[in-house]
Amino acid sequence: MATIEECREALGRLADNMAGADGDVRAAVALDRSLSCHIRDLDTTFSGRLEDGRITVLGTRPGPPAEKAQIRLAMTGDDLVAMVDGRLNFAKAWASGRVKLEASFRDLLRLRTLL
Predict the structure, then answer these.
(1) Residue 68's pLDDT band (cuts 50, 70, 90)
(2) For the chain, which terminus, N or C, has the lower number of CB atoms within 10 Å?
(3) Residues paired with residue 47 on neighbouring β-strands, in sequence order
(4) What is the mean pLDDT of the chain?
C-alpha cells in the first residue's frame, strides 16, 4: 500500500508532467479549477488547484474532502502511483471504477483529451 508521502510525490510528478505537456494535453489542462484527490485506502484528501496546466497541492486532510472541489478524483494510493508511473492506464481505471472522476460536463469534455 502506498504511503501518504508516496502519494504526495506522485502528485508532484504528475504536476511536473502536466507543466511540461504541450499540444492537446496542454490545452486540456489549461483550466483554473479547484481540485481534490481522495486516497480511499489512506482516507486522506489532497486539495489544491489546477491552474495554467499545473497542479498545486495546497493541503492534506484526513477523511473525505471537506468542500466540493470543481474537479474531484478518488482512488487508492497504489492506483495513483501506478498511473503516474505509467503502469495503469487512466481511461481503463476510470471505466472500471478503480478511479472516480467528477467534474462539470464542460470540464469533462475538456479533460477527455487526457483519456
Answers:
(1) very high
(2) N
(3) 36, 59
(4) 88
- Is the Cβ–Cβ distance between 65 and 34 less than 8 Å? no
CB of 68 closer than 8 Å to CB of 89: no
Instruction: Indicate the burial class of 39 (C-beta count within 10 angstroms; 0-12, 13-18, 19 or more).
Output: buried
Residue type, 53: G
- Percentage of the residues of the chain whose pLDDT score is greater than 70: 87
Residue at grid coordinates 500500500: 1
| DSSP secondary structure string for all residues of the chain | ---HHHHHHHHHHHHHHHHT--HHHHHHT--EEEEEEEEGGGTEEEEEEEETTEEEEEEEEESS-SS--SEEEEE-HHHHHHHHHTSS-HHHHHHHTSSEEE--HHHHHHHGGG-
